[in-house]
Amino acid sequence: PGSVSAAFQEYLRHLGLQEFPCGLGSWNKSCLNARRSPRAEPVGLEEAVPPGEETPEVLLELLRDQHSPWALPPDCSPQDRLLREVAVLAPELLHGSRVFQAVKSLRILDKGVEEVDEGLLQFQQLEELILSANHISRVTSAHLPRTLKVLELCYNAVGDLQGLCAWPPPELQHLGLAYNRLCGPSQEKHLTVDFWPNLVSLDLSFNSLTDLLGLVSQLSTLQNLRILVLQGNPLALIPTYRGFLVDSLPKLSILDDIHIWPDERQQFQGLARQPELIRSEARVVVSIGEMKGLPDPKPFQKLKVGSEGPVITYSYCVTYEF
């Protein structure tokens, strides 16, 4: 599927919410009819289940028993289980477009999605949207539900934040853009409080950001930012990288998955006022501990001087790619 909406429809088919033991089929019709047309029953009498129909308890057991052919795999999400059980107990709640109101978390991973389409606006209760490992290069913020609190787009092809920041979800708390194609310094201007007033966590790791000073000046406006990940960018190779960030963003709690303790903050105090220490250069030290698969030169060293043995020369080329 090329769009998020198409991938969601495929997800629904995979869940089988309209198939046995879920849905409104003949196997579960009595439960629905009893709710739609309640009637007084004599005290002490229970409604009999017609032949060919099952009680909700029996249908739920078919979903929960791992030996059942209708059971979900053990690694499925809690929401998958919830939707399947709702489709048994109250299938009318998931009928037609009502299913969009029941989804608060949508995870579509590695499904070839290229477009974040306006069909997402049907999810009026959506709080978490995970679209990792797809082929998304551009996100139109007008297509995102305003209720979003988590947006994860890692392992995509996003190279420009302009479309995402045109009308971003105001309550967003986490934005994940790791392993994309963001290049500085044109993108830093989109990472300010004007666009993300409630952002607590930001992951920009493994992109191509190079302007540390420019990025910090924008991130410093995010008053609620507590978690920041920048490792894997060229700017992370700058010698004073971590110390400058720790001192420049005093409210930050975690940088590159490492907690910032008070003694570290004290150690780098004042570094933010010395931007001249930040140089656009880096030093990389490579240490080779052990090399395997090379011919042993010892047998050839035993040849006596003047012998007629062949002279064999080995040369090796080691290449580092950055």
Automatic annotation (TrEMBL):
Q: Name one GO cellular component term.
A: cytoplasm
Keywords on record: Leucine-rich repeat, Repeat
- This chain's protein is named LRC43 protein
